[in-house]
Amino acid sequence: MPELKEEELVVCRVKQINPHSVLVDILDYGREGMIHISELASGWVRDIRQHVREGELVVAKVIKLDEIPMLSLKRVKREEKRTKLREYELEKRAKKLLEVILEKSGKTELQSEIERRLKDSFGSVAEAFRVAKRREELIEKEIGKELAELMKIEADELFKRKEVVFKAELVMSSLAPNGIEIIKQVLEKAKSSGLEVSYISAPRYLVKYSSRDPKRGEKSFLKKLEEVKKFASTLDCELEVKLKGGD
């Protein structure tokens, strides 16, 4: 397993939510980590479950190395989070593609060893595929001609542009006599704006927006959220928007 370092950004899966902390599995490191309630978000956190859910993927910063490393969510910038999650998903796909290549070659037993060699030489399996497109001979030195050729052939599939899904949580409330109807109108506005809406638990809703262009997609997503928020304000509805990591 690689060595964990302070200030490093890591992808984690929420394992257990406690009254004043969150226990996570630090993926790719085989270790648990702890996020204190004070490191979840800026400002006062009344309910941890309003910020994370068990099973959710999060990006955290290592702030202290201990028997159980201490992590922080609030110290991770939005763009850092998005970039880290993309890198994580790309590496996961790269490992799966390498597994397919090894199955074709009848060398599945070499998966762990080849992953180690590629990471040692190129930093990640995904980066090794990128190198294979331009400098196949460098990959050949590490894993042989046959596998290097297959990696070069499959590299285009790995880096094919995929849809990015932007997410946000909407928390709504209205003290008006027809508050339920008002919330329904706001949700309809979100849907008509091109957002996919799903129910989490009252008064929380999840909205999604997909795009093949990350930068333009994010800009469009934020614009749509702002339009929904303005619409809600005209109907005596309080609306809080909590941005989530993109897929």
The arrangement of helices and strands along the chain is: EEEEEHHHHHEHEEHE
**Which stretches of 5+ consecutive residues score pLDDT under 50?**
none
Task: Count the DSSP helices.
Answer: 7
> What portion of residues belong to β-strands?
25-35%
CATH topology of the largest domain, anyone?
Alpha-Beta Plaits
Describe the fold and architecture:
By secondary structure, the chain is α+β, with helices and mostly antiparallel strands. The chain folds into three domains: 9-76, Nucleic acid-binding proteins (OB fold (Dihydrolipoamide Acetyltransferase, E2P)); 80-158; 164-244, 2-Layer Sandwich (Alpha-Beta Plaits), CATH 3.30.70.1130. The protein is 43% helix and 26% strand. The chain is built from seven helices and nine strands; from the N terminus they run βββββαααααβαββαβ. The strands form two sheets. The chain has a five-stranded mixed barrel with strand order 1-2-3-5-4. The protein is globular. The two termini are 26 Å apart.
